[in-house]
Design a protein that fits this description.
mainly alpha; Arc Repressor Mutant, subunit A; 3-stranded antiparallel sheet; 5 helices
């Protein structure tokens, strides 16, 4: 069983949080091709979110070829992502990490220049 956690206070929509976590689990090898995901109804109950929120996340992941739904059998991690899919998964993960950090810094009152200078210093180290 996979463990997903949502932050209802995040500016990131819940369905995007779910998509991102599934992608991350696959990229980290914690979910492998053929692994079964919880049903939409079960995950909605576990996370205490609307059924349609989970359905939207699963639909997007299915469109991207990351998961595959087999009518009457369940939802599974699709075959091994190819190089391009892995690149997109990793890029999206990085974007989400940086977006979260940026949003938090802005909420704390840092301006764009301060954030940029600090990030440049980190990169130089």
């Amino acid at each position: 069983m996979i463990e997903l956690h949502i932050n209802p206070n995040s500016k990131v929509p819940i369905y995007v949080q779910i998509e991102e976590q599934v992608r991350s689990l696959i990229a980290a090898g914690k979910l492998r091709p053929g692994d079964q995901l919880p049903t939409i109804r079960q995950l909605a109950t576990d996370l205490r979110v609307n059924y349609n929120t989970i359905a939207r996340a699963y639909l997007e992941l299915d469109r991207e070829g990351i998961i595959s739904t087999r009518r009457g059998r369940g939802t599974f991690v699709a075959g091994q992502p190819d190089e391009e899919q892995m690149r997109r998964i990793r890029q999206e993960k990085l974007r989400m990490i940086l977006r979260t950090a940026f949003d938090e810094a802005r909420a704390l009152g840092y301006n764009i220049e301060e954030i940029t200078r600090t990030l440049e210093r980190i990169v130089q180290q």
